[in-house]
Amino acid sequence: DQQVKQNSPSLSVQEGRISILNCDYTNSMFDYFLWYKKYPAEGPTFLISISSIKDKNEDGRFTVFLNKSAKHLSLHIVPSQPGDSAVYFCAVPNYGGSQGNLIFGKGTKLSVKP
Amino acid sequence: AAGVIQSPRHLIKEKRETATLKCYPIPRHDTVYWYQQGPGQDPQFLISFYEKMQSDKGSIPDRFSAQQFSDYHSELNMSSLELGDSALYFCASSLGRPASQATNEKLFFGSGTQLSVL
Fold first, then answer.
1. pLDDT tens, B82-110?
2. Does B99 lie at the interface with A, CB-CB under 8 angstroms?
3. Using alpha carbons only, how large is chain B's radius of gyration in Å?
């Protein structure tokens, strides 16, 4: 059963507009959340993270929002740029696992059109 | 800056054959992780090593084994290959404290090895 769910396989937005990527999780014990970005023929690269003690973390054009009661987080990209076109994975540390044992969602493919 | 190097980039094998995937971590990184991503699937954690010792184990089949060497590079050995083993295999590295649930889970991934089993 999927513990981290990204229900939108793809998203298309216009350059300059906001991209919102969503992620839901099932285990209320998860306390740290990450977003990774993946370009074709490359490995995932870390983008931004958030701890459960916060509800928002911002890094430049990227902001992650966490709603613990809803077990939901979202990644906002403003303004979106064509270079942001990639697959975005939501990930959480596997509860009880050691560092680097991450549970990933299936990813959302973002296409930013010029 | 040096990244995680994986070899080969592509590998084609037949059923029941064996395969060895190699991973060279970023210099001074002491921890390596292996992930498997099937077509259209999420990356699945297989196994990790810290200072040459296995630190955690995920959904790795018994037909697979791995180790980390004294220079910190790692090899994933796969035997009796099955069609379902066809996937993209990622290696990642970091500076580790794998005995604890660290708050910094920032992993550096290689570009992966695409394994096709025919």
1. 999 999 999 999 987 654 544 457 899 99
2. yes
3. 14
